[in-house]
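The protein record filed here.
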Amino acid sequence: MQRKTRLFITAAILFAKLSFAQDSRVQYFIDRLKDNSKNQVLTRLSLYDSIQKLDSAQQLQLVRKIEDAVKSSSAKMKTRVLAMKARILFYLPSGTFHEDTTQTPLMKQVLYEAYKLDEPYMIAEYSRWYGEMLN
């Protein structure tokens, strides 16, 4: 009986540590997306570069967790996360999630949202990404 209890406690501790590690990684990416400084484009560029180092499954999992974490956030934050999702999904290998053409309209929607929010940095950044997707 003691062995089962020890095993259960050890498993619970490992699960808690792994869950916290995932949450801290998600929070790190959310904090980077919240950057409103003059260097926000560079901050997000480094964010995307670090996400690109993950494998496809980890990228998809991270995007879903970030989307869930910002459901009750501001329109600006939701737009930034949607843009990140569109860009990440666009650059995944073909057949991993959707075809590339499904992400271009998503980025167009993000660009319209940036115009509504009147955010010049977001407009410039998302216009460039939208242009990349159209090519």
